[in-house]
Each structure stands twice: as structure tokens, then as C-alpha cells.
Amino acid sequence: MxxxxxxxxNQQLLEWDTARNFYAALNEVKVKExxxxxxxxxxQFNPARIVSSGAKVDAKTxxxxxxxxxxANRPAVQKGIDxxxxxxxxxxxxxxxxxxFTIVExxxxxxxxxxxxxxxxxxxxxxxxxxxxxxxxxxxxxAPDHAHFQAGNKGFLPLEKEWENHVTEKISDNLxxxxxxxxxxVIKEKITNKAEAVSLFGKTYQALPVKDDETEPMMNVxxxxxxxxxxxxxxxxxxxxxxxxxxxxCYFAEGDExxxxxxxxxxxxxxxxxxxxxxxxxxxxxxxAEILGExxxxxxxxxxxxxxxxxxxL
Length: 314
Ligand SMILES: [Zn+2]
Fold this sequence. Notes:
Layout: H1 2-15, H2 17-25, E1 30-36, E2 39-45, H3 50-53, H4 59-64, E3 81-83, E4 87-91, E5 100-105, H5 117-126, E6 130-135, E7 148-153, H6 158-162, E8 167-172, E9 175-179, E10 183-190, H7 194-207, E11 219-226, E12 235-242, H8 249-252, H9 265-268, E13 271-274, H10 277-282, H11 285-295, H12 299-312
Parallel strand pairs: 2-13
Antiparallel strand pairs: 1-2, 3-4, 4-5, 5-7, 6-7, 6-11, 8-9, 9-10, 10-12, 11-12
Helix pairs in contact: 1-2
């Protein structure tokens, strides 16, 4: 699988001009480092991402457009690899990562995490050089009507290395509450105990509120596989980030107040994407902290959730 994925990537860059150009442009993106309440963040100026950050995802727009993840509507030059019989691994032509993939369900069916969390862990294992991420239908997915994950090189998101320094409470042996500038929950489990990881995710999911007009609790998830240093089966780590809101107020603000940021898993993983240069120049750690405060859970909601999870895992 590992070789097949690299082969797909190289072959697509040879044949597909759009993808090749956007990957080449990645060398030109500007990055600056910042710290938000003691957590490490990067700001990336990446003009290609306007397609996602600026995407209209309201029901009417989605209904009227042709789904760009359906195989019938994908460009003929875009090739894929089968995964588990019902997903296709594609390269993402609008990259953030040096190697960036979209893993799409073969059927046109809505974006929902609960029935697919186990698949996400299988993907993390099969694509062990990459972090897998999920954006909920109202939490950054630009195709909320077509189930998909994304994957990008491991080691890119600061959250992967940093989360252990930000544990606020050990809920059980395999479930942790963290605060990485926002509250989140981390499931860490041997891949051989995948069923246990899926069950822990189910409990966390059940403990989260679902808004009236939503199909699932608002969330982003980042998961990856770590090989064992001593050999044998490795571990899966999944960071579940409950959300309070899709886009922050500054996204809709006029004039100087406007910052075009539509936070999704990558941003919350510690790499804030600004598709506009004016935002890259002016954004401060205070802005990032405010955005996180707005789109994620507040402390009291997170504390309640932690208490509920403690009860559940007894
Ligand atoms: Zn579709």
C-alpha cells in the first residue's frame, strides 16, 4: 500500500497539470510560527486553499452543484487506489501538506463519522506515514454530502507531537482530556484493541450534544498510527475535537475586522491556513486564541463533558 500510494502521487504529478502546479506552489507558501496560550501554532499563507476556505456549503449551493467527489464528475486525469473495497484514495490537487490525499467513499452518501470511525483507524494503519483527518459536515468539509477523509504527511501538524504536553485529565487508561488552546479528547489504543477504540469513540460521541439542524455532533478528528519501538503491533491515536461553531465572526466581518479563516482539522492541528496574504500579515496570536475560543468548546462545557465521560468509562 505504501509504495502504491507514492506511485499514485508521482504519476498524478506527471500527468495532471493542475495538481503539479499547486504542489509546486507549495514551495512558495509563507509560514510563520506563533504560540497561543502556550501551544505551538503555525500560520500558513496558502492561496490555493481559497477553494476550501471560501467554499459555499449551504444546503442550496450543495444541492445545485455537481459533487466533485463523485467519480462521474472527477477529472478524467484523476486516478485512484482502492481501499477496503468501498473507498478510493485520490491525491488532493489543492494541497496543504507536501503529500495530501482525499479518501472518498465510492457511493455518494453523506458525511458522517460514527459508522466510519473504524475505517478511519484502518486507514491510519494502512497509511502509516500520514495523519488522517475528518471534517464534519459543518466543520470544514467542502463536500458535506459525500463521505470522505483526508490524509497528509505525519510530522506536519504540531498537535501530533505536542498533545501529550497538554493533557488536562486522564479520564481512563486510553482516554485523555487535553487543552491545545481549545479542549479536545484523545483516544490512544493498541491497534489490536481497535474495537475498544471504536467503543471509546462511541461513548465520546454519545456524550456530545447534537444541534437541532445537525446530523451529528459537530467535530473534527485527527488520527494516526504509531509503530511500536519494540516491534509488534503499534498504537492508534485519535484526537476528537468537539466544535461549537463552523466559522468565526471575523470570517463574515467587513473591512479591517475581516479574517478569512474557516477552521477545520488542519487548523486545529496547529497549522492555521490563511488563503489571503492580508490576513497572513495581520493575524496575531490573540486573533488565533479568539477564533479557537469561538469555534471550539468553552472550558465549562469541556469540564462537564469530561465528568460525563469519567462516569461512562467506569
Ligand atoms: Zn458525490
